[in-house]
Write a structure and sequence with these properties.
Strand 2 and strand 3 form a beta hairpin. The chain has one domain. 37% of the residues lie in helices and 16% in strands. With 286 residues, the protein is of the alpha+beta class. The longest helix is centred in the middle third of the chain and has 17 residues. Helix 4 packs across helix 5 and helix 6 crosses helix 7. The strands form 3 sheets. It has a 5-stranded mixed β-sheet, with helices on one face. Strands 3-2-11-6 form a 4-stranded antiparallel β-sheet, with no helix packed on it. The protein has a two-stranded antiparallel sheet with strand order 1-4. The chain has 10 helices and 11 strands.
């Protein structure tokens, strides 16, 4: 087995995802390798290289010696990311996602929630407080028998490593949760593109914050310039959201009013630091 580097650049937003919102730096490039981003606090947009965007060294490493365990979260994430382009291709050409796509999509969304800069800080805060910590551990081990093992491991390592210790358990928990969620793919109107952010999974919790993903929640996740995933719990069939009437696991066209409402009320409000445009835009100064 190839030995992994001691210092590894790890993307908080995967490159395979960002390329679906990117553009080529030059005509000889085979991949979309740039994106246009906006940091509202700086008041101007800029073009950045995907390979350098949201990169941190060893940010997801666990405090273990062997690479297999130290980089478990990264390695599992890479395995899921390798299937991402197939999901987009099936949306584009088959106008649907198949059962295998659905499984990988659940894992990809779970991983994006775990990797999010905003969510990471939230989970760290939960682990620092005794009350919220116990509830969080109970939640992410709800469907497994790993609670005692996880608590024992956490007691043996410094607090700063706890977030990476729990990430694998959290991802597994979210994957299990998403088994109970319906998935609908929303196609952007002709001439318009979905945008995203550095906190790309929108969790509309309906003012319910006791759980990471309450069963009442609705999720929006821009998959690419053309497609956005909408998810809701299978038992949550209230008719207040017309998107729930659309066919499951299929691509549906939506009108501009619906598209604009999702963009403005959900995606644009969910950024941590950067808004990521779905097209090439010349740098804008405020």
């Amino acid at each position: 087995m190839k030995e992994e580097p001691k210092f590894q650049k790890q993307h908080q937003i995967p490159q395979v995802y960002l390329r679906h919102f990117g553009f080529k730096k030059d005509e000889t490039s085979k991949k979309n390798d740039c994106i246009t981003v906006l940091n509202p606090t700086k008041g101007h947009s800029e073009i950045v290289d995907i390979i350098d965007f949201t990169v941190k060294t060893n940010i997801y490493d666990m405090p273990f010696v062997d690479d297999k365990h130290k980089r478990h979260f990264e390695n599992e994430s890479n395995r899921v990311e390798n299937e991402y382009n197939k999901i987009i291709n099936n949306c584009t050409y088959a106008f649907q996602i198949n059962p295998k796509d659905e499984t990988y999509l659940e894992a990809f969304v779970a991983g994006m929630i775990c990797r999010s800069i905003f969510n990471r800080d939230l989970f760290i805060d939960r682990l620092k407080n005794t009350t919220t910590r116990d509830k969080f551990i109970n939640e992410i081990t709800l469907f497994t028998d790993d609670k005692k093992e996880l608590e024992t491991l956490l007691s043996q390592v410094p607090l700063e490593h706890h977030i990476n210790i729990v990430l694998g358990h959290l991802m597994e928990h979210l994957c299990h949760m998403f088994l109970f969620f319906n998935k609908i793919i929303l196609k952007s109107p002709k001439g318009y593109s979905w945008s995203t952010s550095d906190n790309p999974v929108v969790i509309d919790r309906k003012e319910l914050y006791d759980w990471t993903i309450p069963s009442e929640a609705e999720l929006y996740f821009p998959l690419s310039k053309d497609f956005c995933l909408f998810m809701y719990h299978k038992k949550n069939n209230k008719s207040d959201n017309p998107l729930k009437k659309l066919p499951i696991n299929r691509v549906s066209n939506i009108d501009f009013k619906t598209f604009d409402n999702i963009m403005m009320s959900q995606i644009a409000k969910n950024i941590a630091t950067y808004y990521i445009f779905g097209e090439e835009i010349e740098p804008i100064n405020s």
